Task: inverse folding
């Protein structure tokens, strides 16, 4: 973590403490402790290669600490998370653990403004599952989308200032001193971008020594100029929120780095390396061997260009339906051309959502996002007008003892989709929820999001609770 950024935000934090402390005596502290835990167990519906892990587990414990200095209007949130993962079957069996602060920030509240400094998670925009404006926090894609968007978010170091200018108008600005990319694996896991490709080739007897040498030399590096934790990489975002008649609205400007990377070649020969990674055929591998690829030919860089986003959202209620929408113009977003060379394009995105709960407690949610890529040229796996649909259908049964839900997402432009039915039993005496479900991914080819994981359908069991 950048020392200057930590020192600066620590100074802001101490200033907030000083101003809060100086306002009212005596100081009365209210400390609330709670938390939640979860244990997921995933089983591959079908093991397609020997390298794949047949069973995986992801266990998490979140300890929440809410410390309030009510008279001083000062609050501290300190959530510590422990995570333990295991992988069984396949070429590699291992376990790994991590302890970290998930959110750790101080907040000072006054009648006309609020200030927050520390590590936090923010949600912007109105859509639940599809991303148009919700770009402040990076996401953890190491488990692809087995967790919902809100659960995938990683905290980011930031200072947030919110000013209540008028009765129905608020202005909010966020400054993040350093850049933190989204988490994604490229090799070595079932949900890595390129699966277990390297391990499979190196462990197989069907490849020559020259082919194995080429594959072992393929590497992916960070763009140090963006991820070196320098204050030069700070980001800023602003939002104006208000209410007009029965409509809540927001106007946005964001100057951020693209948190989800796109691979950039070090030289034109690197496109052949990407061709093999995205389409791992023997012909593409032989092309690399014939070209005597080595060094920077096999080195790819995670590119995180700075993007500017201008957008708006709205939300209202019409009869028994909730209606909401978002629109965004994103400048200089990263893409890959048909030949897999790196490129940047402007794009427009507009989304609409509607939800409704029936008299007999059926809940329906439907979301639609239409994208348009300006100055279009042939791009790898992406059309000029990408279209996505997502939704949820759920219902409580037996006075809330049972809960059934189905989430789905359909990418109409690429003919791929995801389906996630789940049934939950709520064991109220123990405060435990037990759920069983399945993720089904379907796609026509590996260039699409779900097509890449077409053979990764999983059945899962989840136990969770609060304390």
Result:
């Amino acid at each position: 973590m950048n020392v200057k950024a930590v020192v600066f935000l620590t100074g802001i934090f101490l200033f907030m403490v000083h101003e809060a402390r100086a306002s009212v005596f005596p100081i009365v502290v209210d400390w609330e402790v709670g938390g939640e835990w979860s244990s997921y167990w995933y089983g591959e519906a079908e093991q397609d290669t020997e390298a794949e892990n047949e069973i995986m587990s992801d266990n998490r414990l979140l300890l929440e600490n809410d410390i309030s200095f009510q008279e001083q209007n000062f609050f501290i949130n300190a959530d510590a998370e422990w995570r333990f993962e295991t992988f069984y079957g396949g070429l590699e069996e291992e376990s790994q653990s991590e302890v970290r602060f998930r959110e750790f920030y101080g907040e000072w509240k006054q009648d006309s403004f609020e200030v927050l400094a520390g590590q936090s998670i923010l949600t912007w925009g109105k859509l639940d599952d599809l991303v148009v404006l919700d770009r402040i926090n990076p996401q953890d894609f190491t488990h692809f989308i087995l967790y919902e968007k809100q659960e995938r978010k990683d905290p980011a170091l930031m200072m947030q200032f919110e000013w209540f200018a008028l009765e129905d108008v608020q202005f909010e600005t966020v400054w993040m001193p350093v850049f933190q990319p989204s988490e994604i694996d490229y090799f070595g896991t079932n949900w890595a971008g390129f699966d277990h490709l390297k391990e499979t080739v190196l462990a197989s007897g069907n490849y020559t020594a020259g082919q194995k040498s080429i594959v072992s030399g393929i590497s992916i590096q960070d763009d140090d100029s963006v991820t070196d934790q320098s204050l030069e990489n700070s980001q800023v975002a602003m939002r104006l929120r208000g209410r007009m008649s029965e409509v809540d609205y927001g106007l946005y400007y964001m100057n951020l780095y693209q948190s989800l990377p796109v691979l950039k070649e070090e030289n034109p020969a690197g496109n052949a390396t990407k061709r093999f990674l995205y389409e791992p055929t023997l012909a593409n591998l032989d092309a690399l061997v014939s070209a005597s690829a080595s060094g920077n030919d096999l080195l790819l860089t995670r590119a995180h260009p700075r993007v500017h986003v201008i957008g708006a959202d709205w939300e209202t209620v019409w009869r028994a339906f909730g209606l909401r929408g978002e629109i965004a113009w994103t400048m200089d977003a990263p893409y890959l051309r048909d030949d897999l060379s790196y490129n940047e394009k402007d794009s427009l995105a507009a989304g609409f959502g509607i939800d409704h709960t029936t008299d007999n407690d059926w809940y329906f949610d439907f979301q639609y996002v239409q994208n348009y890529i300006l100055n279009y040229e042939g791009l790898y796996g992406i059309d000029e007008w990408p279209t996505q649909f997502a939704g949820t259908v759920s219902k409580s049964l037996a006075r809330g003892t049972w809960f059934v839900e189905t989430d789905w997402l359909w990418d109409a432009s690429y003919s791929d989709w995801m389906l996630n039915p789940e049934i939950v039993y709520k064991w109220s005496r123990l405060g435990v929820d037990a759920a069983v479900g399945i993720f089904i991914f379907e796609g026509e080819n590996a260039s699409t999001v779900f097509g890449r994981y077409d053979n990764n359908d999983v059945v899962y069991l989840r136990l969770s609770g609060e304390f």
The mean pLDDT is 91. The chain has seven helices and 21 strands.
